[in-house]
Input
Amino acid sequence: MVARAGPVTALRPLGFSAAALVLVLIGGSVVAVLVRAEGGFSLAPQDWAALRFTVLQAALSALCSVVLAVPVARALARRRFAGRGVLVTLMGAPFILPVIVAVLGLVMVFGRAGWVSDLLGVFGIAPLNIYGLKGVVLAHVFFNLPLATRLILQGWLAIPAERFRLAASLGAGPRDIARLLERPMLRAVLPGTVMVIFLICTTSFAVALALGGGPRATTVELAIYQAFRFDFDLGRAAVLALLQLALSAVAAMVALWVAVPSDASGGLDRTVERWDATRTGLRVMDTGLIVLAALFLLLPLLAIALRGLPQIAALDAAVWAAAWRSLWVAGVSVIVTLALALPLALTIADLRARPRVARGVEIVVYLAVATSPLVIGTGLFLLIFPFADPVALALPVTALVNGVMALPFALRAMVPAATETEARFGRLAASLGLTGTARLRLLTLPRLRRSLGFSAALAAALSLGDLGVITLFADPGEATLPLLLYRLMAGYQMDAAAGVALLLLALSLGVFWLLDRGGRVDAEV
Amino acid sequence: MLRFDRLDLRQGAFRLTADLTIAKGDRVTVMGPSGAGKSTLLAAIGGFFAPASGAIVWDGHAIDGLPPGQRPVSTIFQDNNLFPHLTLFQNTAMGVRPSGRASAAETAQIHEALEAVGLSGMGARKPATLSGGQQSRAALARMLVQARPIVLLDEPFSALGPALRAEMIGLVTALCDRTEATLLMVSHDPGDALLLGGDLMLVAESVVHPPEEAAGALAAPGPALAAYLGPTRPG
Output
């Protein structure tokens, strides 16, 4: 290329600045943690217990999710039925579901006074106990079974249809198909899937906060929070943050080493024609599995809707104030995410000629963001504490951290769009001399609209449902909606909690839909 | 006039040299086997490929150092000639000024260009609602308002049927007569060269051969052109 004059080139410093900003923010907090923990790095027995519990629950959650997901994915891969597309789409939804809302739904279905316990009571069986390890794993399976199912379903659909046809023409039965086609695919897909879920579960905080606790069910993240809120022992919080950092780093390195699959949003709506799975027994089994999986995902939400609906009218002013704060925080998060993601995505797309630099920028951002939000929160608290009252800055800090945390997902949507725009229209734009803001206005923004809308939607939904950094900072009068919901649950005010949960659920899904749709309406392919 | 002054294009094992002159206002069909470098030659003129050595000279000025948008060149590519999210009017207006803003006089000029290519009244439509031929016409309308002295066509009509392609070549000829532009068109079809009239320039065996009068060259091809055309010849 002789001259690649374009705003993209002019944007390169902006892109590098954005990457640097993320690094400074994350690196600064980590350094603050390191300084604070200086010299005092010794782990008490309860810290080791927290580490053990974190690894144990993450491993169990990953294994349970994947073991359950394999038959469900197989059923979805080989059955065609009305609503299949909706179900597969729905399996992408837990990602934008506020964690604390789902936990409340699970408590209402599987808790001591929940539907399942009531049913068991009819037969004289003791009610279930959802708190502790079982509950934490149950909630993680609720969130990750759908993810695992989608990832494994992709593996199934990636087997060329011709191979199934060939196997059928050779008279292969289900066992032969499993041996010839399915097991090799699973061997390739499962390790990565287990690893992704393990990684997600090691940094899980909200689930452990709501369902864990006590000496036997405390994760490292939860221990950080407790050191902070209950003991205000910043030194110990810093040591725990370092422990979490080491854990995330090890897990992330293993994940980089194992090929980790990514969840493609499209293409899951087809099925494979299967000649071997027409037996009645197999049909009944697949139907049963699909129904069970759907019930597992939908019943908690249904429970919230049923119990929350009558409460909506009775929500008091404090709830609406919290809702307003949450929307405000989400709005700022969206701006932070887009302001960082747009120059980063354009820079990465523009660096195609130097793929190593581009990949480097991308990996730096991804790794930085893999640091747990609670560690960053701890670091920021330590940084702000000497100069200002961190509590007064609770909402801006939450918005900032949430915005940065949504960055990898935004990049994943925007980098391909930016690369494609450059590949398809780069030459035409250059030959017309389209540069500067005109290029941004006439080419870049219109072409990136869908991915911008999707990124904004994701950032907003993730921020609205976030129950992480805010717990470290917030004072009781300045709660966001998820924090308010957690407090109601902790106080066993289940009716009020259901009302707030329904409101939060509606807000998250509504805002996601609105922003995502904003990018789609009238957008050209 | 357009002059390739000991021009040398290289990319890996690929090499193409050119040392020749094309007179102002000429219409040249660029032919040759795939991979010989027809598109690379056009890319070098358009500013998308830097020569290893030599110069591309227009009217006594070397244009090599200029960015694509500042060269005296309009290019119509094989595909992606229109921004799909902009209307035909907006797409054409970018030929006046990349910002797409147009004064009243320029607006009239854009409408007139759309009319000249047979798209009058369709300025508000978006490319997706047009046929392939209409999309080609829209790209030609923009070329018309750009009014640059060199026009490069990199097989823009290869996806069209024979009748439509002939019609487009006729339209291009008429437009270039009007703007007195020098035209280079890449094509695989000797029929295109005859339709365009003018000269034929063969790109083969790492060399850009000097242009010859098309009808004569096709009637009595030299060895390189004969090898490219193969045993069946038009007419």
In short: The domain at 1-36+313-520 of chain A is CATH 1.10.3720.10 (MetI-like fold). Residues 417 and 448 of chain A are 6 Å apart (CA to CA). Chain A has a mean pLDDT of 87. The first helix of chain A runs from residue 7 to 36.
